[in-house]
Amino acid sequence: MFLPLTACNLKDNSSAESGWVSLTMATATENGETQVSYVATSAAYSAFVYSPISMSAKDSFINFELKATSPIPVRAEVVYGTGDSAETYYTNLVVGTEYSSFSVRASSVKNGQTAGVIRLYPSYNQLSGAGELFIKNLSGSDYYTSSFYSLTAVEKNSGGNNQSEDPTGGNNQSEEENDEPYVPENATYLYEKYSSYFKMGMCAGYDDYNSYSDLNGHYNSFTCENEMKLYEIGQNEGQYNFDKADQMVSWARANGKKVRGHALIWYQGAPDWIKNGSKAQVLEKIHNYCYTVVKHFKDRFGDTVYCWDVVNEAISDNGGAFRNEFYGTCGIDFIKEAFRAARDADANVKLFYNDYNMDDLTKRNAVIRMLRELINDGVPIDGVGMQGHYAISGGNNVYETNVNRVNAAITAFESLAAETNHPLEIHITELDIKNYTNDNTRLANKYRELFEVFRNHRNSITCVTTWGVTDAHSWLNGFNGNGDAYPFLFDRNHNKKPAFNAVFDF
Ligand code: XIL
String of b and e for 46-63 (b: at least 16 CB within 10 Å)? Predict the structure, then answer.
C-alpha cells in the first residue's frame, strides 16, 4: 500500500534549462515553492517519485540524471498500465553524490499500453538520518511527460503497487553499515550488474554498430571504432565530415548510451595538412580542429558525448620517448593546446589522455611524467585511458598479460592523482584479450582476474569498454600474421562465452 505523505509537493524547477526536482518529504511554502527535507523513518521502507509518461516506440529508453546527499541504491522503474495488465521494467542503480546519468529500458511495450509512470524508489534501509535525492534532465528517445511529480511513502514490506517482490529489486542488504557496493541479484545486463562500479562500454564501427540489437542492452557507454577519428572527420583541411559519427551518436543516444569521443589527436593516420607547418601554424590547426569537433558534438548532442580521448598514443614503446609526429614540431605544447581547445569548446566534457602498454613500467613512467607536467601546468585533464589490449599466450608476438602489472599501473595513476591533488578518472578504453588458440577457459580466467582488479579500483575506474562485441568483428583478427583472435565475451553467433559468465558472476 502506498501511504501518501503530508504536503508532498516537490520543488520543481524542471522547466528551467538545467531543471531539477528535489525528491524529499516536502513542505509546501506559501509562494508555491517547496521546502524539502528527507527523513528515513523505520515505518517507511522506500519512497518514490513518479511522473506520468507516454511512450509509443518499442526499445525506448528514459534517461535522467540523479544524485543524492549520500550514496543510495535506487530502483528505477517504468510501469505501463495498471492491475493485471501492468508491465514493469526496472533498473537497479546506485546513486552517488555527483550527478550521473541513468536510463530505464522499456523494452517491449505491449501494443496499446503506452501510458505509464516512471518511479524511483530510493531504498530507505540504506539511509540514516536525513538526505536528499535530486533528479534532472529527464528525457527519452520517444517519450514525454507532464511536469507533475509526487512523492509517496511505501509501507515497510508492503512490496508496492502490484509487486510481490522487494521494491528495491532484491537488495537484501541489511541495515547495518555496509561499504560493499550494491550488486543487484536479478540483473540481466552487464551494465546493471556493474552499476555501482563503472560504466560498461561497447565499441563498434559503422558497418556493425546496428547489428547488436540482442546485445547492446548490456552497455551504457559506446565508442565509435573509427568514425570520430581525425582521419575520418578531418581528412581534408577546413572540411568536417560528421555524417557517420552523427548517425552513430544518435543511435547511441536513442539506445540509452553515453559516448566516449575517440580520438581528437592521434599520430596514426593523421593527415599531412595538420602535421605540416611551423609550430605556431600546427598549434593553431590543432586548436581549431579540436575546438570545432568538440563543439559540434556538444551543440548537437548535449552531454551524450561525455568524454574525449583528446590525445591518443603520444608516447612510443621505444624507451618512453615522445613520438615524433606533432612533438617534433611543437614539443609537449601540442598536447596542452589540444586539451585547452577541447575545454574551451565544452566546459563539462571529461578530457582523457589515452595510451596502451601501460603495464610496461618504462612506458607508464613516461606517461606519468607527461601527465604530471600537464597537471602542474594547469592543463585541463580529467582522466587516463588505459587501452587494455591484453592477451593470453599463443600466436606470433603475443605475450601473456600479467594482471599484477595492470593493477600496478592503475595504482600508479591513483598515486599521481593523490600526489598532485588532482582527481583523475581511469577508463579501460579498448579491452580485448588476444586468444589465438581459442581457449575459452584461459580466456575466462583472464577476464575474471582483470575484472577483479577493476572492481577493486572502483573508486578511480569509471568506465570499462571492450573494443568490439562479438568475435566476428575485431581488429585483432589476422593481426601480426595470426588467425582469428576470439577476444570477447560473445562468440560469432552472439552467444555468451564462459568469459561472459566470468565477468558477470561475481
Ligand atoms: C583500430 C580499429 O579497431 C581499426 O578498425 C582501425 O583500422 C585502426 O584502429 N588503438 C586505438 C584504436 O586507439 O583507435 C585502434 O583502433 C586500436 C589501437
Answer: bbbbbbebebeeebbbbb
For residue 417 the three cell numbers come to 592523482
Which residue's CA is the closest to the ligand 1 atom numbered 16? 225
Q: Which amino acid is at 359?
A: D
Residue type at 501? N
Q: Name the residue with cell 572540411.
A: 239
Atom of ligand 1 nearest to the CA of 356: 10
Q: Which of 367, 366, 479, 396 is CA-nearest to residue 432?
A: 479
**Tell me: the pLDDT tens digits for 181-196?**
777 777 889 998 998 8
Position 8 confidence tier, pLDDT thresholds 50, 70, 90: very low
- Express each pLDDT in 71-84 by its tens digit: 666 667 676 666 66
Q: Give residue ranges with CB within 6 A of ligand 1.
A: 225-226, 312, 387, 430, 475
Q: Does an H or E element contain 285, and which?
A: helix 279-301
261 Cα to the center of ligand 1, angstroms: 13
Residue 403: helix, strand or coil by DSSP? Answer: helix
**Atom 7 in ligand 1: residue holding the nearest Cα:** 475
Q: Counting Cβ atoms within 10 Å, is residue 393 exposed (0-12), middle (13-18) or buried (19+)?
A: middle
Stated as kind and residue range, the H or E segment containing 375 is helix 361-376
313 catalytic residue (yes or no): yes
Cis peptide before 270 (omega within 30 of 0): no
Which residues have CB under 8 Å from 475's CB, separation 6+? 225, 467, 468
Contact 215, 204 (CB under 8 A): no
Q: Where are the beta strands (DSSP E) in 420-505?
A: 425-434, 461-466
Give the residue carrying C-alpha cell 547492446: 216
- In angstroms, what CA-CA distances link 269 with 165, 209, 341, 452? 54, 22, 21, 35
Contact between 190 and 503 under an 8 Å Cβ cutoff? The reply is yes
98 is catalytic: no
Would you say 370 and 413 are in contact if contact means Cβ atoms under 8 Å apart?
no
Which cell is 358 given?
601501460
Of 90 and 425, the structure prediction assigns the larger pLDDT to 425
Q: What is the pLDDT of residues 424-445, one digit of tens each?
A: 999 999 999 999 999 999 999 9
Cα 40-44-45 angle, rounded to 5 deg: 95
Nearest to 290 by CA among 350, 344, 332, 241: 344
Look at the block and give the residue holding cell 600474421.
481
Query: 258-266 and 350-355 as β-strands: parallel, antiparallel, unpaired?
Result: unpaired
Exposed, middle or buried by CB within 10 Å (0-12, 13-18, 19+), for 32?
A: exposed
Atom of ligand 1 nearest to the CA of 269: 8
